Amino acid sequence: MIHGRYGRAGYGAAVANTNATAVHSEALGALLTFAPRVWYPLYAMRSPAAGLNALDDQRLAGLLMWIPFGVIFLLLGLGLFAAWLGEAERRAKPASWIPLVLLPVLLALPGAGCNASDRAYAEEITRGRADAGRKDIQRYGCGSCHRIPGISGADSLVGPSLERIASRVYIAGHLINEPDAMIGWIRDPRHLRSPTAMPALGVTEQEGRDIAAYLYTLK
């Protein structure tokens, strides 16, 4: 659950779940602490045998649930929130970990008309290959509908231009521009928006990742 934006639920869901658990746990602890009578008859029967006052034992348990465990939940929630912010910042900026010695190699790759760090970042977030995506775009004839920089003959205005698609907020007018949405739109647009003139071309998952990697270099 706590693997970030591209995991099962993400840090945001982890923060919400932790806070929800903390609220009802602390509320129960406070109620137990100030309860005027024993809530669980079984404990009232067994506590005297252990030399304990049942009501005092219940209040101590409530106090422990309310304050110490409340502090633990608070620290856990703050830690998850900090991780959430850190991941968002990491994904919002170009990858800076690429050794400079690799830049000439990346620039020499086919279709490397974009900044090398932008290309590496696009491939990181999509788990695709931009050079393979460029070839897939040509093979599937995407240029017959769109203007796509860097693709020979892709100058049609049937569909919207894909210039600077990586810098746009939305895909297809309503989908948040993030890798999963981009890949899903490329592979099965009618599943995400119906009706739409965008055809399903039978693009495989890896081809979708490759095409998305190339499109995310268009800034």
List keywords for this structure.
Cytochrome Bc1 Complex, Chain D, domain 2; mainly alpha; rod-shaped; two-stranded antiparallel ribbon
In CATH terms, the superfamily of the largest domain is Cytochrome c-like domain
CATH topology value of the largest domain? Cytochrome Bc1 Complex, Chain D, domain 2
Q: What structural class results from the helix and strand content?
A: mainly alpha
Q: Give the N-terminus to C-terminus distance in angstroms.
A: 32 Å
Average pLDDT metric: 79
**Helix percent band:** 40-55%
Q: How are the strands of the largest sheet arranged?
A: 1-2
What this model shows, in words?
The chain is mainly α and 219 residues long. The chain folds into two domains: 11-92; 100-215, Cytochrome c-like domain (Cytochrome Bc1 Complex, Chain D, domain 2). It is built from ten helices and two strands, in the order αααααααββααα. It has helices at 11-34, 41-46, 54-66, 68-92, 103-107, 116-126, 130-139, 179-187, 189-192, 205-215, and strands at residues 170-171, 175-176. Strands 1-2 form a two-stranded antiparallel ribbon. Helix 1 runs antiparallel to helix 3 and helix 6 (116-126) runs antiparallel to helix 10. The longest helix has 25 residues, at 68-92. The radius of gyration is 27 Å and the shape is rod-shaped. The two termini are 32 Å apart.
